[in-house]
Design goal:
This protein has about 280 residues and is mainly α. The chain is about 45% helix and about 5% strand. Among the domains are: about 120 residues, DnaJ domain (Helix Hairpins); about 70 residues, HscB, C-terminal domain (Monooxygenase, Up-down Bundle), CATH 1.20.1280. Keywords: Chaperone.
């Protein structure tokens, strides 16, 4: 009887250790080994649908990859959007001076409409004119994203110089990364922690016995679900759990309790993974 219990515990541990993605050292999709008993926890994640070809994206640096989201580590630093002072920037083409603020980052020159090179001091929140806060409810992020792409998309500058086309490709790619990162509660949480210089240990195993049991139960439910109604019920439950832990993260982050914030991220990671797999099966 004791031997069977130990075997079950080992199986639970092996399943759980794959529910949280690790941070790869290179810019590549995350890949997990495949086991028949934990199908939805071990799928290979897809590469980003947009993969910039510009050579400036291949400078020696490190990347954070989470699913199809990629954070350029060279551009992550600790600062608060509220504390950003005005920065004077000069257009590379017409030399007009632009006062860049958090609400109006200098991506396109107001005078000659030329696209500017990427400013590494501008974070993803500033790109959309937002203060650095977790709760983005009511923010029309998609609208802001589309507005930028109307100005920055490389197709719009196909007749311009190679220099400006390169700037357009880089700026457009960064806006895409910013939108995808901020539009999801999990990736937004990870990004905010990294902006504050806090590394998220995505490999740390959750040892809570109750969560271990829940993982096994939900895994079996997903594998055994044969109709859309059952899958929708699982999806609804997982979305509620994700929202609950998302609220926990927001409270912990605001109070600078980074240990609790990281724990919330690990829980959110698991529920997000289940949601993605259920959506694929629907």
């Amino acid at each position: 009887m004791l031997k069977k219990k130990n075997t079950t515990t080992t199986t639970l541990f092996n399943i759980l250790r794959h529910t949280t993605p690790s941070v790869p050292k290179q810019h590549s999709p995350l890949t997990f080994s495949s086991h028949s008993n934990s199908h939805f926890l071990h799928k290979s994640l897809q590469s980003p649908p947009f993969s910039p070809k510009d050579r400036s994206f291949h400078n020696p640096t490190w990347f954070y990859s989470f699913g199809y989201l990629t954070f350029d580590g060279k551009r992550l630093y600790s600062k608060s959007a509220e504390s950003v002072k005005e920065r004077s920037s000069r257009c590379w083409n017409c030399h007009a001076v632009h006062e860049s603020t958090a609400a109006a980052p200098f991506l396109v020159c107001d005078s000659c409409r030329c696209i500017q090179p990427v400013d590494d001091s501008v974070d993803y929140f500033e790109i959309f004119g937002l203060s650095k806060k977790y709760d983005l409810e009511g923010v029309n992020l998609e609208g802001k994203y589309k507005d930028w792409q109307k100005k920055l998309h490389p197709d719009l500058v196909h007749s311009k110089s190679q220099k400006e086309r390169d700037f357009a490709a880089e700026q457009s790619a960064r806006v895409i990364d910013a939108y995808r990162t901020l539009s999801k509660p999990l990736s937004r949480a990870i990004y905010m922690m990294k902006l504050d210089g806090v590394e998220v240990d995505e490999e740390q195993t959750i040892s809570d016995p109750e969560l271990l049991a829940e993982i096994m139960e939900i895994r079996e439910e997903v594998e055994e679900a044969t109709d859309s109604e059952s899958l929708k019920q699982i999806l609804s439950k997982m979305e509620e759990n994700l929202k609950s832990w998302s609220n926990t993260f927001a409270t912990a982050f605001q109070s600078r309790n980074f240990e609790e914030a990281q724990e919330s991220i690990r829980r959110m990671t698991y529920y997000s993974r289940v949601i993605d797999e259920v959506v694929k099966k629907l």
